[in-house]
Amino acid sequence: MDNGRVDEDDRENARRGRDETTEERADRRWTELLQELRVAQTGVQILFGFLLAVVFQPRFTTLAETDRTIYVVTVLLGSATAAALIGPVSYHRLLTGRHLKPETVVWASRLTLLGLVLLFCTMCSALLLIMRVALHNTLALWLVGGMALWSFICWFVFPAWAMARSPNGRDGSGSDE
Questions:
Q1: pTM for the predicted model, two decimal places
Q2: DSSP strand E in the chain: where?
Q3: Three-state DSSP class for 7?
Q4: Closest to 114 (Cα-Cα) out of 88, 93, 90, 89
Q5: Which residues 6+ apart lie within 8 Å of 4 measured at CB?
Q6: Is the separation of the CB atoms in 123 and 47 below 8 Å?
Q7: Among 115, 117, 73, 116, which residue's Cα sits nearest to residue 90?
C-alpha cells in the first residue's frame, strides 16, 4: 500500500540496485551509453565540420602565427575527440557475439569519458581562437576562462557533487541507473 512511506523491502531494493543479471545490466548500460554518445557525437561532428572549413576561408591567411597554432591544436583535439566518441561503436561491432558485453560497456564508457574530456579541451581551444580573432585583447582569455570553468562545473563538478551526496556514491554499492 502506498502511504507515502518507504517500507523495509523498498529500502533493501534501493540499496541493492536493480534486480538484473550481468548481461541484462550490460545491455541496459550499453543502450544508455548509445543515447549519450548520439548527443555528444552530433555536437562533435558539427564542431569538427566547421573547424575543417576554417582553413579554406580567405581570412585564414591573415591570422597571426599564434592563432594558426591554436587552430591546428583545435583541429587535432577535434579529431581526437571524434575518434574517442566513435570508438565505442567500433569496439562494440568488433566484439559483438563474443560474449564480452560487460567488458565492452566498461571500455566504451572509458572511451566516452575520454571523449568528453577531449571535447571540453576542443571547445575551450575553439572558443579561444574565436575570441582572440573577434576581440584582439586580454578580455578573450577571461571570457574563455569563465566559459571553461562553467563547462567544467556543468560536466564534471555537478555530477561529482551528486555522486558524493548519494548514499550509493559513498558506499560503493555499484548501483547504477
A1: 0.79
A2: none
A3: coil
A4: 88
A5: none
A6: yes
A7: 115
